[in-house]
Design goal:
Blueprint lengths: L7 E4 L2 E5 L8 H6 L1 H16 L3 H9 L5 H15 L4 H7 L4 H4 L2 H17 L1 E7 L9 H31 L15 E6 L17 E7 L3 E3 L11 E2 L15 E8 L2 E8 L3 H5 L6 E2 L2 H4 L6 E7 L8 E6 L4 E7 L7 H18 L3 E12 L4 E7 L6 H11 L4 E8 L2 E6 L6 E5 L3 E5 L7 H4 L5 E3 L7 E5 L3 H6 L1 E2 L2 E6 L11 E3 L3 H10 L1 E3 L9 E3 L12 H17 L3 E6 L10 H15 L3
Parallel strand pairs: 2-3, 3-4, 6-20, 7-12, 9-11, 11-13, 15-23, 23-27
Antiparallel strand pairs: 1-2, 4-5, 8-9, 8-10, 12-13, 14-15, 14-16, 14-17, 17-18, 18-22, 19-21, 20-21, 24-27, 25-26
């Protein structure tokens, strides 16, 4: 039985369907399926709405009073064309002679229908049977993967048979287009330790496996995030009255924390894109366990003015967030940053210092090694400097391990002899414009592109392993990413502070030149370059910051600024490159 109330649903140029409900073994079954009929109906209605010449062609050559009659006519015709040539069809079905006499228009209609289907963002799901002692997980994975392959083969095969029988020719070039689905998901119901007040979401199925047809290009409604995540002190019943059969849950490992990220089907392209950003939790990590974080994305009634609110449920050791069901929320940054905000708040309660920036471990060819933390808000140049190591520093660098590319935390060890860094994500959500030219295309086979033709075009791409982000690397350098100051020569790209007070003043100011990644413009200031947790717990964060900055200097960890110049026109590429090279010189001089 399908988890959804219907075997398929169309929403915001997306189609989501249960593979078992629309399963087809033959081309004829595909053409008779409810899903194909619905797609064809929408296609015909679109032709009429556009006043397309193709609709005029059908009106002239087919007798129909309603569009549904034309749909039935075309389904019968396609069923014949999938296995018969034109001369065979017209011999025993004379009513098709008029349309089949105009091969050019018929061929155009088939191409347009094929493209109409492929322009949808298409998502398939299958439900795994209830797990038992005898269940072999690998069998379900294999069946799921094969189902995606079979569907793609079936759609392409049906299209090709119809086209070839219509034209009487075989094409000279075959294109293996992603004609099935863009993404698939295997769902499974798992019992977890659910607080009573969340009973309405208890039985929502979990994403257990995802499959992506690369390159995946998505077009969310929005291209930037705005507003802040606001803390609330009370939940209302209306906030928890969600239609469970319209949600699924992505169980994300956000660093060492477990987050259940629920999303409405209207946001499925954003929700499933989390697979390139966070590791999916194992069955044993969910079964009978309570998460640290719950995010409900796509809630109709939040009862608060803000689009994003969260509550610290201390009694149940749970951070729970709500994002409004609204088109203006259709942007991946809301998913990512909301989960990370709640992660940071949990980390602060555990006496760890959240860091908005990048951390990486470098091993140079001269034998020097260092783990470097670069702190900076969106557009400051932290990720771009990291990317410059890959693109320009091959002659100097033996190995680079990424601990985090956007958000992490620092922990002082029990003996107060080391400060160790941890990450949150296995992927990165980066601006396409700020990558080295050509890099995105080198990684096209595993990337998710979002609005690549618009300002603030983004790429979600795996950059590290879960083992790296949770291992814990000793911190050697802490630098503030300054993207707005120019320098007279390369010797001034990096400079260091003499004391904790001067350092903390610069980091606290969080000054940068906004790059258009949010709704900010010009020189802006963000408390500790991190609007995702510290401002909501300012007193607690101030105490932690003083502890950690004092410890940096006590332990001999160098603290300074690195001038990426990313915000200065003309230095978008050269600024991070020069910063990376300057950092290599600093690391060479470390003892």
């Amino acid at each position: 039985m399908s988890y959804m109330s219907e075997p398929y649903t169309f929403t915001r140029n997306k189609v989501v369907f249960d593979y078992t409900a629309v399963f087809c073994k033959t081309h004829d079954e595909l053409l008779q399926s409810e899903l194909f009929e619905e797609v064809l109906k929408r296609f015909v209605n679109r032709l009429e709405h556009k006043e397309s010449p193709l609709f005029v062609f059908f009106k002239k050559n087919v007798e129909f009073a309603k569009n549904e009659e034309l749909v039935d006519f075309l389904i019968d015709l396609f069923r014949l064309l999938v296995s018969h040539k034109i001369d065979e069809i017209v011999r025993f079905k004379a009513e098709y002679l008029a349309v089949l006499s105009d091969i050019e228009n018929m061929l155009e209609s088939i191409e347009e229908l094929y493209n109409f289907w492929r322009r949808f963002e298409r998502f398939l799901y299958m439900e795994a049977p209830k797990r038992s002692h005898y269940t072999k997980q690998s069998v379900h994975h294999e069946q799921f993967i094969q189902s995606n392959v079979d569907l793609k083969k079936m759609v392409i095969g049906t299209y090709r048979h119809i086209r070839e029988n219509l034209t009487g020719k075989n094409p000279r070039t075959y294109r293996q287009l992603p004609a099935g689905v863009n993404m698939g998901m295997l769902l499974e119901s798992i019992e977890w330790d659910c607080p009573d007040y969340l009973s309405s979401i208890k039985n929502t199925p979990f994403v257990r496996l995802t499959l992506m047809e690369a390159p995946l290009i998505l077009y969310p409604t929005m291209t930037k995030r705005k507003g802040a995540f606001q803390e609330i002190q009370q939940l209302y019943d209306e906030m928890l009255q969600i239609q469970a059969n319209q949600f699924i849950v992505f169980p994300a490992k956000v660093g060492e924390l477990l987050a259940f990220i629920y999303f409405h089907f209207d946001f499925i392209s954003q929700g499933l894109s989390l697979c390139n950003l966070f590791e999916i939790a194992e069955y044993e990590e969910i079964d009978g366990k309570r998460p640290d974080i719950i995010l409900l994305f796509g809630v109709d009634n939040i009862r608060y003015p803000a689009n994003t609110v969260f509550l610290d449920d201390d009694k149940n050791t749970l951070m729970i967030g709500f994002a409004r069901h609204a088109e203006e929320m259709d942007y991946f940054g809301y998913f990512k940053k909301f989960a990370l905000t709640m992660h940071n708040l949990v980390m602060m309660k555990r006496n760890r210092l959240p860091v908005h920036g990048a951390m990486f471990h470098l091993k140079l060819k001269n034998g020097s090694t260092a783990s470097v933390v670069i702190v900076g808000d969106s557009g400051a140049g932290k990720s771009e400097t990291l990317e410059a190591f890959r693109a320009h520093c091959e002659d100097y660098v033996n190995d680079i391990k990424i601990i985090f590319d956007d958000m992490g935390c620092l922990r002082i060890n029990a003996t107060h002899t080391q400060i160790v860094g941890f990450g949150t994500e296995i992927g990165a959500f980066v601006r396409l414009d700020d990558l080295q030219p050509g890099y995105a295309y080198e990684e096209i086979d595993r990337s998710i592109f979002m609005n690549p033709d618009k300002t603030n075009a983004r790429l979600i791409i795996p950059v590290t392993t879960y083992q790296n982000i949770v291992k814990g690397f000793k911190v050697d350098l802490v630098l503030y990413a300054n993207n707005y100051e120019n320098v007279s020569d390369d010797n001034n790209i990096i400079d260091f502070f003499d004391n904790a007070k001067d350092a903390i003043d610069v980091f606290r100011s969080g000054q940068r030149l906004a790059k258009g990644t949010t709704d900010e413009k010009g020189i802006v200031r963000t408390y500790f370059a991190n609007p995702f947790g510290p401002p909501q717990r300012k007193d607690a964060h101030e105490e932690l910051a003083r502890l950690y900055f004092d410890s940096f200097f006590e332990l001999g960890i160098k603290v300074g600024q690195i001038r990426t110049r990313l915000g200065i026109e003309g230095f978008e590429q050269e600024g991070p490159k020069a910063a990376a090279l300057a950092l290599i010189d600093v690391i060479k001089g470390l003892k």
